[in-house]
Amino acid sequence: MSAKIPFKQVDVFGAAPYTGNPVAVILDGAGLSSTEMQQIANWTNLSETTFVLPATQPGADYRVRIFTPRAELPFAGHPTIGTAHALLEAGRIEPDGDGRLVQECGAGLVRLQASIVDGKPGRIEFELPAPRLAPLDAAEFDELEAALGRPVSRDAAPILVDVGPRWVVAQLPDAAAVLALKPDFAATARQSARLGATGVTVYGRHADAMQAAIEVRAFAPAHGIDEDPVCGSGTGCVGAFIRQAGQRQVLGDDFFASQGAALGRAGLIRLALSDDAIRVGGMARTCIDGDLMARGKQPNENGETPEGGAY
């Protein structure tokens, strides 16, 4: 096993550098076991860490495995964009003549569209896996409101949206209510565990939609992430909620969501909705570029370098 593996930490969905959601991208995970991948993801302590592998399905450009600090996910949004950015930047993949890429992951094949500007990756967007929607029952509705500490909209009732990750999506009266929210993370974790959900995503409309039409926040304490700074899959599920609730007449088919202000970030996600697809896009920037070192190759407290060892 090589002593070094190329590694990038990519800031995704940020309106400016260091304002989005970071993802750790291990550019060659072929020599790592699932246990080692999970250990590394727990160590990076980011919402997700990805491991790139050779594709196994026809038509895929690469395969990726995605881990939170506690578990593997079949799909996630900002890791999808961050991984594609890292691979494009490193010259490990190339889009076709129309800028298209195909990612293989636990949720299947995910289609991406990448713009290349002056030879470098620009905005990248993915097509959300087909969402499956399920209503909450009355007890689950009450439990959600208790965990959030406030009522949610009953005109468009909360639903569970499954795109690989499974998000409970709820609408609040406006963006100010979203930003003021102080959820009970322990209660959210308990409900998420009972529902088999990744977490809860809430949104509300901005009164003055100069840049973003809605504000979004995503909570996943059951996965060790009290609040995800800027969440692609959660915001994509908001898009599915908006489409289901018939709110495209108000918000339109192509608009921006802001996220992260509650954590001192400035995320901006583009949502494009149609009857056939939901597309989620944004910018990515590499902030750390280097190598992941083999744990067994590191000097011990006596300055000795042991032979062998795992990552």
Describe the structure.
This protein is 22% helix and 36% strand. It has 311 residues and is of the alpha+beta class. It has an 18-stranded mixed β-sheet that branches. The longest helix is centred in the first third of the chain and has 13 residues, at 77-89. It is globular and about 55 Å long. Residues 305-311 have low confidence and may be disordered.
Number of strands: 18
Q: What is the N-to-C order of secondary-structure elements (H for helix, E for strand)?
A: EEHEEEHEEEEHEEHHEEEHHEEEE
Tell me what portion of residues adopts beta-strand conformation.
35-45%
Give the C-alpha Rg: 19 Å
Oligomer: single chain
Molecular shape: globular
What structural class do you assign from the helix and strand content? Answer: alpha+beta
Q: Helical region count?
A: 7
Give the proportion of residues in helices. 10-25%
Low-confidence runs of at least 5 consecutive residues: 305-311
Largest sheet: 18 strands, mixed
Mean pLDDT: 93
